[in-house]
Amino acid sequence: MTRPRGRRGWAALLAAAALSAVVLSTAGCEAIGYYAQSIGGHLGVMAQAQPLTDAIASARDANDARLAQRLALAGRMRDFASRELKLPDNGSYRRYANLHRPYVVWSVFATPELSMELRKWCFPIVGCISYRGYYAQSDAEQYAQGLRRDGLETYVAGVPAYSTLGYFDDPLLNTFVYLPEGELARLIFHELAHQVVYVRNDTAFNESFATAVEAAGVERWLDQDASEDARTSYRQYDARRQQFRALLLGTRDRLVALYQTPLDDAAKREGKAKIFADLRAGYARLRAEWGGYSGYDRWFDQPLTNAHLAAVATYQQWVPAFTALLARCDGDWQRFYAEARRIGALPAREREAALRQLAPPATRTNTLTAGGKAAVN
Question: Which of 267, 275, 350, 368 could potentially form a cystine with 263 if both were Cys, beta carbons 3.0 to 4.6 Å apart?
Answer without folding.
Answer: 267
